[in-house]
Design a protein that fits this description.
489 residues, alpha+beta, Butyryl-CoA Dehydrogenase, subunit A, domain 3, four-stranded mixed β-sheet, 16 helices, globular
Length: 489
């Protein structure tokens, strides 16, 4: 069943406990901090549910239709279909929502393509992931994840002696029904708007911290779970014209606080297996399917930013200057290079050997690293070509409400190519993209959403075919043969 936007919004009124500082949010769909983003996501669900978009956004199986990001790919056409759905969602949101509904669902789909890994260390959880995959896709549910430990805490009274006195989430009890969780977990981006949260460990943990090695799924309205939002940006957006991005695309990030949250065994996937709790992502298609979406999202965002930069250059009348044209050409080459890396993941795909295909993981990791390294340069180019133009605009669009300022504004800010209003809208958009608090969060997010740069590059190090590279050198050097001395005479 594919949900409509109104059904998605109705699902958010489920008694979840959301806090902004010390203030409880009763209804995230109407609260000034979240209603704009909630509306954006609702429109995504309507877009996906629209029969006109069915070929891209959904697939049919046994007479039912499911979102395309739950498709288990068995062919290159299936990979293309998944990728096309990611592009459609990213284009609708300009690449600004990192945890759109197709991200974590792709992680779960990739794991469900190789469920037996969950039984590898003697457990019997493979059936759980298959059932959870069906639960998500049949309910058309929206999930986020929290897969990194919280900062250290020395509050032993709350969390007991865990060795390092950490406030990290851990299992504190278990019985026939399931496990009980206490502690804090980070960072559930878009968790305000999600139906469920996937708890896990992308950060390696040592074997002696087995109680933290819990991978499970929890409804956002679970008893004992509270969501602590970071400072929201939407309430400070003057209007959609003045803050076109913060007013609609602040997906928020939340810390999760667990106070004796009970999780039934059927929603547990890894328990007390430190190494396995991370390996389930990188030894299956999970990490690749999830981060192919990230590559696509960034590509859509890059195209959006390229449009902003180009229009700014034209607005300022500098697009014909050779040095500016050179910068725009460089930007265009970056966009094309990333697009090629993404398409290569489909063309040079990986056969998993069990009937399923995966995107090329090496190309995906290379693209992930490329995006992380280049985003600061992309933002710097946007800043440079904007110059001081962003500071030459009126404080906000109330300038149009006052007859004394409206005519002056229209006379002095209009150019032969643009109206005064269009110019201000463009520069407001640029500032919201790189100069506002929303823009600063975007840069921090792109730098760290996949982990610190050394972790991202370590994925490429791990997956590289070093023996093949070495073999090329060894063939030239003639490894194992005696040196040719015939030339010494």
């Amino acid at each position: 069943m594919l949900r409509t936007g109104s059904e998605f919004l109705a699902g958010l009124r489920d008694g979840r406990r959301v806090y902004i500082g010390g203030r409880r949010v009763e209804d995230v769909t109407v609260h000034p901090a979240f209603r704009g983003a909630a509306g954006t996501l609702a429109r995504l669900f309507d877009y996906k549910q629209d029969p006109a978009n069915a070929d891209v956004m959904s697939f049919e199986e046994n007479g039912e239709r499911f979102a395309s990001y739950y498709l288990k790919p068995r062919s290159r056409d299936d990979l293309r279909r998944r990728s096309a759905a990611h592009y459609a969602i990213a284009d609708q949101t300009y690449g600004l929502l990192g945890r759109s509904p197709d991200h974590v669902s792709s992680f779960v789909t990739g794991l469900a393509m190789n469920p037996e890994i969950l039984d590898r260390d003697g457990d019997a959880f493979a059936g759980n992931i298959s059932a959870y995959y069906d639960h998500l896709r049949k309910g058309d549910l929206y999930a986020t994840y929290a897969v990194h430990p919280a900062p250290q805490s020395k509050n032993e009274a709350l969390f007991g002696d865990t060795g390092g006195h950490q406030a990290v989430l851990q299992v504190v009890d278990e019985d026939r029904q399931g496990v009980t969780l206490n502690g804090m977990k980070m960072l559930a981006t878009a968790g305000i708007f999600c139906d469920e949260v996937w708890i896990g460990n992308l950060t390696p943990i040592s074997d002696d911290r087995g109680k933290e090695a819990i991978t499970c799924a929890v409804p956002m309205n679970a008893s004992g779970l509270t969501l602590w939002a970071r400072k929201p940006m939407e309430p400070y957006a003057v209007s959609e014209s003045d803050n076109p991005l913060a007013s609609r695309f602040d997906e928020s990030d939340v810390m999760l606080i667990f106070d004796n949250v009970q999780v039934p065994w059927e929603r547990v996937f890894v328990h007390d297996r430190a190494a396995l709790s991370r390996e389930i992502y990188i030894e299956t298609a999970s990490h690749t399917l999830g981060n192919h979406q990230s590559n696509v999202r960034f590509h859509a965002k890059l195209r959006f930013i390229a449009g902003i930069i180009h229009k700014i250059a034209r607005s300022a009348g500098v697009d014909g200057i050779p040095v500016v044209a050179e910068k725009l050409g460089r930007l265009a080459s970056w966009e094309a290079a990333l697009g090629g890396m993404i398409q290569g993941q489909i063309l040079d795909c990986e056969d998993l050997g069990n009937g399923f295909l995966n995107f090329n993981r090496r190309y995906m990791y290379a693209a992930l690293n490329w995006c992380q390294e280049h985003y600061p340069e992309i933002v710097a180019m946007m800043r440079e070509l904007s110059g001081g133009g962003v500071f030459q605009m009126p404080a906000d669009f109330s300038v149009l409400d006052n007859p004394e300022t409206r005519d002056i504004f229209n006379d002095y800010w209009t150019t032969p190519a643009e109206s005064a209003v269009d110019r201000v809208k463009l520069y407001r958009l640029a500032w919201d993209m790189y100069g506002s608090e929303f823009g600063a969060r975007q840069q921090q997010y792109e730098n760290f959403f996949a982990g610190p740069s050394f972790i991202v590059r370590n994925h490429s190090f791990r997956e590289a075919p070093w023996s093949s590279f070495d073999g090329m050198v060894e063939r030239l050097l003639g490894a194992g043969s005696a040196p040719d001395r015939s030339r010494e005479d």
